[in-house]
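Supplementary notes (optional reading)

For those who missed the lab, this is the record we used. Protein: Galactose-1-phosphate uridyl transferase N-terminal domain-containing protein. Length: 342 residues.
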Amino acid sequence: MQKKFPSELRYDLVSQDWVLIATGRARRPETFGAEKRQEVKTGKTCPFDALAKQECATIAYNKGKRVDFSRGKVCIPSEWTTISVANKYPAFAPSKSLRKRYVGPYPVMDGVGFHEVIITKDHKKDIPQFSLMQVKEMIDLYHARYVDLKDEDHVHYISIFKNKGLQAGASIAHPHSQLIAIPMTDPDIQRSLSGSYAYFMEHKDCIHCMMLEWDRKDKKRIVFENSLYAVVCPFASRVSFEMRIYPKGHLPYFEKTDESQREGLAEALQMALKKLSKGLNDPDYNYFLHTAPVGGGSDYGHYHWHIEILPKTSVPAGFELGTGIEISTIEPEKAAAFLRKQ
């Protein structure tokens, strides 16, 4: 008789990390939505109500169309529904020089880049409550600003992400996301690129395409599909109810998505977050774009861009922090089955 273990270690083929699926102390899916959460405190006034007093817009959309405005004369257009402005407290700032240097044995350079906040108009409605057109408009703005910045000096990677809720790091209640363009390739995407490249060199195929093909045949971890995208709870989920949105076709570069592909992405992203909100009672979460780096002349044709959604369902403790091995307390197969029904 085969021994029953209290957990199962699963290997992520791309990042080459191990994750622990704690089957022995697994929770029922519906228990995650019953947890009490702290909310971001809302002041008397929203800081996004006075945008013109903070920073000028870099790009704006109004009801699905890009707004043509002169930043020299008009800082914030009078009518907008989605807008991007420079972060008032940026982590990176534009400059023509990186000032690379050493401090003792340590390489150092200035935090050169771009840091912007992408804001949707409504104070309370977020992606699950948006019309599909509003979600598409937000993705169009992501894409347009990505294209605007990809050829700027010292920009090598552009991170687009959303922090929703206090546990996910959001300090402002008004729904928003962020874009940060940085002068190097970050360690997380570098591991992903390395794993993708190693698989391609051995098999002459995309590892993400292979995994997605297997998931679509197996069907156990599929949450949602349309003609262009699949939403999956990955086999080696790092957290409970983790989801990833993959283009079904092989696409290394987010900036090369066309109009119809962005429309399909809008539907997939909205459906994933609707199911998460309904099933887990509107949990805090982070989502972020993983795509091939920009500039540098390298060919990343082996890569496959995607969006990762990480709900805040637990707090990392000593084991996770000390070993780098994440623990999930629900099997991704059960998580996907629960979310499909929402």
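If you only remember one thing from this example: The chain has a mean pLDDT of 90.
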